[in-house]
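Morning F.,

Quick status update on the modeling queue. The single chain you submitted on Monday has been processed. Sequence for confirmation:
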Amino acid sequence: MGGVRLWDVRSGKIVQTLDTKSSMTSAEVSQDGRYITTADGSTVKFWDANHYGLVKSYDMPCTVESASLEPKYGNKFIAGGEDMWVHVFDFHTGNEIACNKGHHGPVHCVRFSPGGESYASGSEDGTIRIWQTGPLTTHEEQSEA
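Structure tokens below.
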């Protein structure tokens, strides 16, 4: 059993524990402060950052080391792990929408750029790759207006 302990830095006490089945290998607070994204075993989870409840949980195609939520629209997330690929998923459905291949070792870290126009992946093969996200979709353009 794994998890994340959230601490109150003023009192030094544990406020909440986010329980997971496996040891957590990645945690990220979304840019808007709404979600905590975690990776544990072959699962990516999204937690409410204010009330700490589980919002979404998706089983991944392999053991994942890291996950990151797209910061601008929050409509997709990336995950990387033991299969050496960087997978892109739809946040709302969990469906895989893209897969980037290029590393020659497990992917240990993935993160979106602050504007969401690209993301980086770091691998055991000693490389960091920068991947460009696709052009804005009509839905994304309308929600920006």
